[in-house]
Amino acid sequence: MIKIVVDAMGGDNSPLVNVKGVVKALGSIKDISIVLVGDEAQLRALLQAEKYDASRLEILHAPDVISCNDKPTEAIKTKKDSSMSKAFELLRTDPEARALVSIGSTGALLAGTVLRVGRIRGVKRPAFCPILPTVVPNQIVAICDSGANVDCDPQYLQQFAVMGSLYLQKAFGVHNPRVALLNIGVEEEKGDALRKETYQLLQNTPALNFVGNMESRDLLSGEFDLVVCDGFAGNVLLKSTEGACMELMRLLKRGMMSSFKSKIGALLIKKKMYEIKDLMDYNNYGGAVLLGASKTVVKGHGSSNDDAVFHCIEQAYKMEKNNLIEAIATHLAVEASNSSNA
Amino acid sequence: MIKIVVDAMGGDNSPLVNVKGVVKALGSIKDISIVLVGDEAQLRALLQAEKYDASRLEILHAPDVISCNDKPTEAIKTKKDSSMSKAFELLRTDPEARALVSIGSTGALLAGTVLRVGRIRGVKRPAFCPILPTVVPNQIVAICDSGANVDCDPQYLQQFAVMGSLYLQKAFGVHNPRVALLNIGVEEEKGDALRKETYQLLQNTPALNFVGNMESRDLLSGEFDLVVCDGFAGNVLLKSTEGACMELMRLLKRGMMSSFKSKIGALLIKKKMYEIKDLMDYNNYGGAVLLGASKTVVKGHGSSNDDAVFHCIEQAYKMEKNNLIEAIATHLAVEASNSSNA
Fold this sequence. Notes:
Two copies of one chain form a homodimer. Helices cover 47% and strands 17% of the residues of chain A. Chain A is of the alpha/beta class and 342 residues long.
């Protein structure tokens, strides 16, 4: 049985989507047990409408919530009765609790992971690794790091590559993930000192299927499984891609609603539009993880629906089932002994 | 009379679009004269079909072309008979030649500007500054630097801000441009050492209307006129935005062409789609410039049509008409004397 702690609060539609996501997970994954952390009265009321295996669900009462407006580190330290703080406390003290899933404040979740969970032995810096859909159906792309480390050295990026590559294999079954270095051109000699040195390191890391530099315009092309970068560039990459898609969709919608004729047209292509929306919808793929932490932590979008919460739980389950953390620890130990022998 | 050198070669549809763009410019701007550099026989043949004021057009023969596959610096140094090299040579030696417009290789144009044109006195690093449309009609946003300088210090970014701000005023008539610093969050304390120090510098530069940090997801929102960043982040920002828009449009097109019903729908919304395409089309806005160079150099997209070439020429004309280079030199001298007095 794999025990997963689920923060029931903090999302745009919490705790409803959290409760429904948990019920779905209990139904579809038989060797999972869940601790739902949040306002007990609210959770019990919502659960009354649901059918689930009660023997695999516990509730841990937490009357308070950390919001996106709270200062992350401060909130984790002072809001002891918040659902996220209580969830971290359980993860830290209960050896059976193996993973935490939350759709609450990203900053607080990162701070909590660093302060309460700690790193795998040998990890220089934990890295934030979200996934995005690509234009190739059922194919995702991961970005590592997307914002946890704004100042990086080449050795950090090498570890991001190794951890991200293992993650894609263990959590998503991606075979021999194609790892690319984010750069301003595809040629080997491109970029700043960080990129040039990282390029050489990645090329000489046997555990990786390193395919060279990539440009940000090809992020969604489906040609790469993992994009390696410092947290500043990764954050720019992730948010500009999301922003551009959002603004363009908004323009399209506005355009289609602006005349009678175009409204009829919109009706006729509605199904196709939904298919595209579906393809590009992160709710269907899973959450972001903090790779390098000594326990599994999965962060879903704040606007997650119940499917998205379910996918985050499923993802945490797979990471644990396939022993990702052990695999990372083993690989880093091997890399370390290789480089000390070299 | 403002004399502008136009590289006739190097674009996807050169020299046809270059010739047509030049003819348009001669027709609509009366105090402009143009030197068209490229294969003379080809250019004369194309010009035969056009009506224009021949007294304001010269042709400079150049039998060779620099392509995007050539190594930029090497090409500028060795391909002496290429249209771009000859254009730079003219810009360097003819005191009346005030600006160069090209839709050829970006790398070669940057290399040529650095090697043959040089910088304005006081400029630490020239910066590449492209413009993008926003979701607000007729409103653009400029990114400075978008790739010329991958390693930057805060003083470079401060100059990018000053030069970009003057550029928007002089070339596009933007009043009191809103200048933002690209960062991973909007709060003042966000980002790495470069961002934190630059934030303070920008806040204390009287010539600027500095509005604080911005996140990449808001690039197209129309809330900012100028985004200041190092060339690495700027390149990631620019290309991921372009890439995401392109991939999404491709998905939409594919979706709409996939069934009879959706094809009818597509017909009905065609006009609206073209309006959006038009809004987001760089051809309607102008080219990228290398700010800080001692002569005006404007780079259009390789896939420019004749309208885009015309807009690039018009932009170069406005920059010269409004004495942008002089304005930059004056401002930098003032900043320098301010900081030495401080």
